[in-house]
Amino acid sequence: MGPKLEQRPSVQADSESPNPEGVPDYLLQYGAIHSTEQQRAYEQDFETDYAEYRILHARVAAASQRFMDLGAEIKRVQQGTPEHKVLEEKIVQEYKKFRKRNPGYREEKRRCEYLHQKLSHIKGLILEFEEKNRGS
């Protein structure tokens, strides 16, 4: 399919597990920024995770689009007709092929959603710091 993602066990193993209170790790790891050095470190972390996010997002979006297209196609056909039955079978077969070719899809989608939230959090902190220090 697309380029293989390099596995980063140290990041993936502990970064997606919420703590016992259910708070995502990045909320604990990335607090308010108090210095330009801290800002640079957050920006570097953002860029690293953003590269992975872009690859995952492209894969997830392509899969979603394919099934949305098939869903739209079947909606245009009257239910109960032979054409509708053919499309139903086509969707089932596409799904089976997809699952076989992409056994890690659910994990990729979950990781993509996690990274989206983490990146949004980091970006918000960076923007907040920049806004506070605009006049400095």
Molecular structure report:
The chain has helices at residues 9-15, 25-29, 36-75, 82-101, 105-132. Mean pLDDT is 87; it is low at 1-14. It has one domain. The radius of gyration is 21 Å and the shape is elongated. α3 (36-75) crosses α5. The protein has 136 residues and is mainly alpha-helical.
Instruction: Write down the overall mean pLDDT.
Output: 87
- Integer count of domains: 1
User: What's the helix-strand series?
Assistant: HHHHH
Outline: elongated
Radius of gyration: 21 Å
Helix content: over 70%
Largest sheet descriptor: none
**Strand coverage percent:** under 5%
Number of helices: 5
Number of strands: 0
Poorly predicted runs of 5 or more residues = 1-14
Task: State the distance separating the first and last CA atoms.
Answer: 48 Å
Task: Compose a concise summary of this entry.
74% of the residues lie in helices and 0% in strands. Helix 3 (36-75) runs antiparallel to helix 4 (82-101) and helix 3 (36-75) packs across helix 5. With 136 residues, the chain is mostly helical.
Write the layout of secondary structure elements.
Blueprint: H1 9-15, H2 25-29, H3 36-75, H4 82-101, H5 105-132
Helix pairs in contact: 3-4, 3-5
Question: Features of this protein?
Answer:
136 residues, mainly alpha, 5 helices, disordered N terminus, RNA polymerase II elongation factor ELL3 (Predicted), ELL/occludin, Occludin_ELL, cis-regulatory region sequence-specific DNA binding
